[in-house]
Structure formats: structure tokens, C-alpha cells
Predict the 3D structure of the following.
Amino acid sequence: MAEITRDVLIVGAGAAGLTAANDLRKAGLSVAVLEARDRVGGRLWTDVIDGAMLEIGGQWVSPDQDALKDAIEELGLETYSRYREGDSVYVGPDGQAHRFTGEMFPVSPETEAVIARITGILDALVAEIDPDKPWEHPNAAEWDSISWDAWLRSQTDDDEAVRNLAFATGSAMLTKPTHSFSLLQSLLMAASAGSYSNLVDADFILDKRVVGGLQQVPLRLAERLGEDVLLNQPVRSLEWSDDGIVATTDDLTVRARYAILAHAPILYNRISFVPPLPRRQHQLHQHLSMGFVIKVHAVYDRPFWREQGLSGTAFSPYELSHEAYDNTNHGDERGTLVGFVSDANADGVFELSAEERKERILESLSHYYGPEAKNPVVYYESDWGSEEWTRGAYAASFDLGGLHRYGADLRTPVGPIHFACSDMAGAGYQHVDGAIRMGHLVAANIVDARREAGAPESIG
């Protein structure tokens, strides 16, 4: 078995791990990045399917995502705005498609007033939340003990208002049923974007894309590290003590002073830790789980919806695909729609055959865009729930009551082992921006720890 020695071992070649590795290199430390997959990027994956370039994973850049924007600029990448000219579409409880412009759905004046009132309450609550420390709010325990759905229904008996308010953090972001996570978890999701209003504003959250795909961020970061990024190397065991770590894969041993686990925390149990992680970590990870969403890509010979004066932006808490957007690639004559099937809806469609699932999903898209939506030239489903090294999407969140109990322990190092990924970010939580922020943070923490320890020169 081959053996290498480095200052820092990074497990996971996603945006967090590769950011940390580059920062540590700049600080004069030697690194090795072990990646279980046969590619870099983690939950960023740009691929060509049947001749169409598709963003299988994350793809959007919003105005508040400074860490991501800085990385894009520093790596020499270009961005372009998502197409949004024309009317949006909303399907209400009557099953009819209603065209609208602006942020507010075309609901009754009474429902609109309820949505506006509760949005104001939520923005005020979110303003009190520190996204890095939501558990420190005086009401954290109380807000973590009531579900997002139950809290909304305590504010109004208008079901349409509740559904529209709920899906921004439920189906759309945490991708879990709204009864399964807390008000506090929902407030964290909103605080990570600056406000609840930001989170529900598609023009804000889904603002720009990267020309050629967002996976270029980790690809270019990995290029700088060269042979220090090793693919197809799932870590099987990790021995740790105050003196450092010894990690083993099927054919490699890595000795290092520090380790960074830079992958989804639900995968920590795939590694055998010697000695075991502390009981606090064991408890914490039993209360974290991934959401579940299918990202549906439908490519057409042209963006036909634009001919109807539609922007491609569509919403409905009553549809199988609860939201959809124009996802046409930069400079592409063909048109692409991207739709999302989330939480309990996603559970149900995998009980169907692939052909029936496709038919049901395209039928839902046709309720927004008309019958032409049923006939794409390329159709593909991003199913991250079946990915061996991800097991869900978009990220991990706590069950009811878990955030205030264990949130403070998410980033706490265990001896020489540090943790970094989008799942534990404050600003940019669950986004690439958050992954990059966590990569910078943990690299700085390790540099500081070495300095305080009076560490000798770099090794490896």
C-alpha cells in the first residue's frame, strides 16, 4: 500500500475542500485531497447528456453570494443573467394557469394581504437571527420545538397563503415536508440569504449562471492542486490523536497533522474513526438528514414559451413540479426548462416506472407552458438521492428540535479533525457560496492552530 505524508488531508473534492486546500497551499502547507468519486465537484456537476449541456447539480449565483462571486472572478469565469423577460405563471387551487408579473402571486386580495402580513413578521424574526449562531437567540428552543407548517397555520387559516409561504423553505430549499423541520430551521434558511423576502424572490436567488457551467469553479481549483487531488479514493478509516491523523483508503495511507472532512456530514459514518468520535458528534449526526429533490431538465428545439410572452418562471404549491424556470444555456438556440419535484412528491414518483414518471412530470410542466412542454428532445432527471456519495439534495438539515440542541457542535473540531461544507454554513447555507466560505474559514482556523502550537516547518 502506497503511503504519503502531508500537513493537511482534505476528504472531499467539492468547493469547500478545494477552497481550503488552495488556501492552505498559499499559507505554505502541503495538502492531499482524497475524493471518493471519479470526478471533482461534489454537488456541482456539469455534464453533456444526449448532446445537451446540463447543470446536474448547483448552478445559480445570487447578488449576496460574495464568496462565490469572488471565486468566479478570481478564476477568470464569466456569468450571464437568467432569462426572465415576460410573464410568470402561477397555478392556484383551481388548477388554472394564471399569468402575472412582479413578485406576488395572483391570489385573492385577502390572501395577498395575509402573505404580506406574515412575510413582514418573518422578515422581522429573521433580522434577529445570526445565521452563524441561530441557537443563541433567546427564543431558539421555543422556535425549534414547533414545525414550520404548524407555526404558519397558527398565524392564519388561509390554506393557500400557508402553502405559498411554506414552500420557499420547504419544497424549494430544505426539500423536506414542512411538518418535519422547525420554525428555527426555516428562519436560518432565510437568514442565510439575508431575509425571508430575499429567499422568496426568484430574481434575487436565481440571478446569474456561469458560462460553461458552475462545476468549472471546483475544476479550476483542482487544476491548481495538480497531483495532490486523488480521485476514486474513499477514506475507509481515520485514526486520530493529538499527534495527527492516519487515513487509509483501499490502496493508500495518508499521514497528516490535520484532517478536514469536506463532504456532507451524513457521510461521516462511512468512515471508521479510531478512536470513535465523541458521543456529542454521534448524537448530532443522528439528527441531521438530507432533503430530497429531483431536478428535471427538458430541452426543446427552441424556447417556445418565449413566443407566448412567458419568462419561463413558474410556481405552484399544488403541482407535482412546484417551480420551474427558463434554463437555456448561454448562446444556445435550443431552449431548456428546469423543474423541481420535491420532498413527498419526489418519494411518490419513484414508485412509478421511468416512462410513467417522465409522463407525469412533463404533464405538470405542461400546466404552466402548454402542451408543447410534453415533447422535449432531451429529458433528464438529476436524482441525487441515488448518488452513493451524496444521498440527497440539496443539503443536510436538522430534524424538529435538533438545531438548537446540536447546531453549535457542527463546526467544532475533534482533536486534529476539522469540518467544512455548505451544510454547516451561515451565510450561503446549502449553497456553493457557503461551501467556499467554510473552506476559507477552516483553512484559516488550521493556520491559526499551527501558529498557536508553534508548529515546525511544513512536511510532505
Q: What stands out?
A: DSSP finds 17 helices and 22 strands in the chain. The chain has a mean pLDDT of 96. The radius of gyration is 22 Å.
